[in-house]
Design goal:
The complex is a heterodimer of chains A (245) and B (198). Chain A is an alpha/beta fold and 245 residues long. Chain A is built from six helices and six strands. In chain B, the strands form two sheets. Chain B has a four-stranded mixed beta sheet. Classes of the chains: A alpha/beta (245), B alpha+beta (198).
């Protein structure tokens, strides 16, 4: 058991290093529990950690929020801010990309699955709507187990009940702050392909001015609200990860 | 002194030039009018090929961020295939109207709807439809769910729907909503209920 845990941790470290090198050529690598302050001696199981995925990037610019703001830029900045907010609340987190890298949804899913993260959060931005939308995979929860192998197209079904529970708690927590939030399902990759609880968030401006999405004050407020909500479900994530709450 | 014959020829040529100019302007006006009539002809209501019937269309409203069922009474074919195509045409006519808050791109059309037993429908959009779609999870979701839920409500027996663009598979509609797989009608109905809540 101890050996397999060590192997898993080593694998996680390797994937994090690969992601950092892919995501940020020439830039600082993201701070992660495994890459910062390497300690000699036996490897400890990492604490609960959250993977944040800034959607799009590289040749995939995402939506043109306005003539000057591509979605990929907003998602990256928001993801970095969210990571800082989570770290400030004692929650380890890392980014799938920390630069303008092109990653397919399959590449993202494969990397995240090998890390066995406690929670995956994809960040999107849109010019339409008001506030924040939280999405979980458009699949059926509670399907029978199919043995040791999972269908790539429906891998999320194995943890969908947990995902929906976390989604509802996060939405309820955000609602208490008065920030507009809606909880939905959506056919968006790579949610279906993930074996860990997985959500996508879509941030919209609260005014008619789309450029609000690029304002640091607005981004900071959204990220702090979301980080508080994620922190509120941390005990549940820890329990499911086999860590003490 | 200019010869009289030359003056007459010049006058005739001038008259001809003016006449041809007027005729050209007339031709241009007629061409513009014909084109606009052709464009309008592409966006006509479903042809009255059957008895008038009350049907429910699931219409996306971007202003309220909801999907709402709306009833219309129009002549519809009894055949499932024609019925499916007429439903999509009726839905797109709503989105083309100036009152619609959910706008589609210029030239957006549903090329065909194929019904394949058991329970599969294939909706084939044209490239202008996908290219003109507003990019974003919610915006794309509204469009897809509106079409599938409208079909599922009015064509009995549908269980799965596949969406193609120009007869080919495409990864996403406009960068977000997945088109690579089949849509399960029961899951789309669940989403339609979520989207119809205020």
């Amino acid at each position: 058991m101890a050996l397999s845990r060590q192997i898993r941790t080593l694998l996680r470290c390797t994937v994090v290093a690969v992601l950092a090198s892919v995501g940020a050529p020439g830039q600082a690598t993201p701070t992660t529990p495994s890459t910062q302050n390497p300690q000699p001696g036996p490897i400890q199981p990492p604490p609960l950690f959250i993977v944040i995925d800034p959607a799009h990037g590289g040749t995939d610019a995402g939506a043109a929020l306005n003539a000057a703001i591509p979605e990929k830029d907003v998602t990256l900045v928001v993801a970095r801010r969210l990571r800082q907010e989570l770290i400030a609340r004692g929650l380890q987190s890392l980014l799938v990309r920390d630069g303008d890298a092109t990653l397919s949804t399959d590449q993202r899913a494969a990397a995240v699955n090998s890390m066995h993260a406690s929670l995956y959060v994809a960040v999107h931005a849109t010019s339409q709507g008001n506030g924040m939308r939280l999405y979980s995979a458009m699949l059926s929860a509670g399907k029978d187990s199919r043995g040791p192998f999972l269908d790539w197209e429906t891998a999320q079904e194995s943890v969908l009940a947990r995902t929906r529970s976390i989604q509802n708690q996060i939405a309820a927590s955000i609602q208490q702050t008065g920030f507009p939030v809606h909880s939905l399902i959506a056919p968006v990759r790579p949610l279906n392909n993930l074996i860990v609880p997985a959500l996508a968030i879509e941030i919209a401006p609260t005014t008619a001015d789309v450029s609000q999405l690029a304002f640091s004050d607005y981004q900071q407020m959204v990220c702090a609200t979301l980080a508080n909500a994620i922190a509120s479900v941390a005990p549940q994530l820890r329990l499911r990860s086999g860590l003490s709450p | 002194m200019i010869p009289c014959r030359l003056l007459i020829i010049t006058a005739i040529l001038l008259a001809l030039a003016v006449g041809m100019g007027i005729y050209l302007a007339h031709l241009r006006r007629r061409e513009t009018s014909t084109r606009s009539q052709l464009v309008q002809a592409e966006h006509v209501s479903p042809p009255p090929s059957g008895p008038a019937e009350k049907i429910a269309l699931w219409v996306a409203h971007d202003d309220t961020a909801t999907l709402q069922p709306e009833s219309i009474t129009v002549p519809f074919s009894s055949g499932r295939q024609q019925r499916a195509e007429e439903l999509m045409r009726a839905l797109l006519n709503i989105y083309r109207s100036s009152e619609s808050s959910h706008r589609l791109g210029a030239g957006a059309e549903v090329r065909d709807v194929y019904l394949v037993d058991p329970g599969l429908a294939v909706i084939d959009l044209n490239a202008a439809f996908a290219d003109g779609q507003t990019s974003g999870i919610f915006a794309e979701e509204l469009t897809i769910v509106s079409m599938i839920q409208t079909l599922a409500t009015n064509v009995p027996g549908l269980t799965r729907v596949k969406v193609l663009v120009d007869g080919k598979e495409r990864d996403t509609l406009a960068g977000h909503v997945d088109l690579s797989g089949f849509y399960d009608v029961s899951q789309v109905s669940t989403l339609a209920k979520q989207l119809s809540a205020p």
